[in-house]
Amino acid sequence: MRLTYPPAPTSATVDTLWNTPIADPYRPLEDDRSESTAAWVTAENDVTFGYLRSIPARAELLERFGQLYNYEKVGIPRRIGDAYYIARNSGLQNQAVTYRREGLNGPESVFLDPNALSEAGTVTATLGAASPDDRYVTEIRNEAGSDWQVIHVLDARTGARLEDRLEWVKFSGTNWDAESTGFYYSRYPEPDGSALSQANGFHSVYFHRIGTPQSEDRLIFRDEEHPNRYHFTSITEDRKYLILNTSTGTDGNSLHVLDLTDPAGEWKPIVEGFDSHCSIVDHVDGRLLMMSDIGAPRYQLVSVDAAAPSDRTLWNVVIPQRTDLLESVNSAAGSLFAIWLHNACHRVDQYALDGTHVRTIDLPESTGSVGGFRARKDADEVFYAFTSFTRPTEIHRLNPADGTSTLFARPEVDFNPDDYVTEQVWYPSKDGTSIPMFLVHRKDVMPTGDVPTYLYAYGGFNVNLTPGFNPSNLLLWERGGLYAMPNLRGGGEFGEEWHQAGMLSNKQNVFDDFIAAAEYLQVSGWTRPSRLAIAGGSNGGLLVGAVMTQRPELAEVAFPAVGVMDMLRYHKFTIGWGWIPEYGSADNSEEEFRNLLAYSPLHNLKDGVRYPSTLVTTADHDDRVVPAHSFKFAARLQAAHAGDNPVLIRIEQDAGHGAGKPTSKILEEQADKWAFMFDAMGLGGR
């Protein structure tokens, strides 16, 4: 079924970079507010949704996914004063509702319902920090998936919304002062409103006093000389120390500390430069506990003298580096909870504040992931979440005194987890590096060489991919399919050395790791190219775009989602400059330009090539990886593609990079994805 694709607006734009002319014919699609772009988006969606709706299996998949997704999803309880606040989605609600419960098992009432804030359910609203006196709690809103946040203040008992409203906030928490009079937060200057994609600069720290307009907020920190830096704050639980975390992007940071008990106090450096990754965990008796990879690429916990924090001769190791990655340390209930990553699966140890090992926490499975382990120091309980590929997220209550856990919430999903199996295999990449990969399938599915396979990965930004339940995968497994998830270099699963092996000039290693995963699945007898789909989102969308241009015959189906596709111009949009430490920049040097040009998906599409059946996905409110990346890639792909198989772009309305997407949109998107894949593979389609 050969499709007719709408013509995209074009121009004769040619940039010259390092004496090299670079044509950019689809530059007009970068203007996300132009009439021509809007018309092209409408026309593309007409083709895409017309095609997807015509797939016979889609209706069945949508109905089944609605059944699978219709289960209660419970968040980790949070205690403020004597009350517990629990986010819960009854099943098919667009957004989770936060309930306030009197005591852990007492009566509850609706405290914050985001579904009442928009008819389409596209506004998310979650709770931020609570004031030390437990009187207030901040509410953080995002609309239509945008990274822009609006902060409100709620009465923690009644849920009544105060008049305080803070705008132009992005990438920020809220950190209350000791007197509960206000909080610190980070924001950008108000943009001029010309386009969604304009670059953001001067991320600055402010203090907001309750009951005053935002215009009166006090500027705490602003770097006039370096507009392209992030500035975040955190505060120790005793409110004695404010921590300033500064970074040039997504890799490496510096830390400074301000003694809030000293009226004449000034910022003191803890770690300067951007060559390490450090974060403050807690303050104990004049010493700051800090996670750091300085001299420990798999991280350790050290204590720092708060009076002389930069003097490394005064640093003491509290939890030393070991073979497994120390992913995080949380201070809660008078203990330290260290979360380790062992071959991409979580382990948890409890320590005393001085680093004495107390116990290893028993988890429900050895192949899974945890979250939580957060509470105030005086708490007598700690909640955590546990999940695996075949175990829906459940909540446990831990007694830190004896290490015993009791089940707090376990969802019931319409499937039998005992029918499925998870295994981890290791395979060699192009250069011989051994890469781990999870394989999940129904127990009766064997490697026949014909198994429909969905290969998903990320490989970047020090991000760890760990086992987690996604009910959408059941649509694949129930039809005898295989889900494969390798842990590529560029991620952080094995520490900073693993990360660095897949960034900057080493980025090709990530693509080679992914290609080797596909080849392993074929050589080991699981599948073949006509039964293989490759998928990834954001940096993973770049991964799919690069692999499908380098090896178009590798897979039958490609799902590049919200991907970074123009590697020569990515840093010119919104906060794209923050990714330069990971990717490099075409403006920095000819060496970086050549490296980026070698794999940039947009620039490596070739005329007359049969590419995989491709469903590019993006959203009109994605202000992180702006939709122009996907727009330009899809337009060029449609022009270059020589096959009769479809290459489509699905552009979601009133959605962003992915976070906060309402249930209604999730159901439609996943049904479209699986219908497209099965149809392209000739499995239950036309």
Spatial sequence of strands, sheet with the most strands: 32-33-35-34-36-37-38-39
Q: What is the number of strand segments?
A: 39
Architecture of the largest domain, CATH level 2? Answer: 3-Layer(aba) Sandwich
Kindly estimate the percentage of residues that lie in beta strands according to DSSP: 25-35%
Biggest sheet overview: 8 strands, mixed
* Structural class by SSE content: alpha+beta
The top-level CATH class of the largest domain is Alpha Beta
* Total individual domains: 3
Mean pLDDT over all positions: 95
Question: Any idea what the CATH superfamily of the largest domain is called?
Answer: Alpha/Beta hydrolase fold, catalytic domain
CATH topology of the largest domain: Rossmann fold
- Global morphology: globular
From the N-terminal CA to the C-terminal CA, the straight-line distance is 10 Å
Count of DSSP-assigned helices:
10
**Rg over C-alpha atoms, rounded to the nearest angstrom:** 25 Å
Residue windows where pLDDT falls under 50 for at least 5 positions: none
DSSP helix fraction? 10-25%
Structure overview:
With 686 residues, the protein is an alpha+beta fold. The chain folds into 3 domains: 14-67 and 415-680, 3-Layer(aba) Sandwich (Rossmann fold), CATH 3.40.50; 78-323, Methylamine Dehydrogenase, Chain H (7 Propeller), CATH 2.130.10; 324-412. Helices cover 17% and strands 34% of the residues. It contains 10 helices and 39 strands. An 8-stranded mixed sheet has the order 32-33-35-34-36-37-38-39, with helices on both faces. Strand 12 (175-176) and strand 13 (182-187) form a beta hairpin. The radius of gyration is 25 Å and the shape is globular.
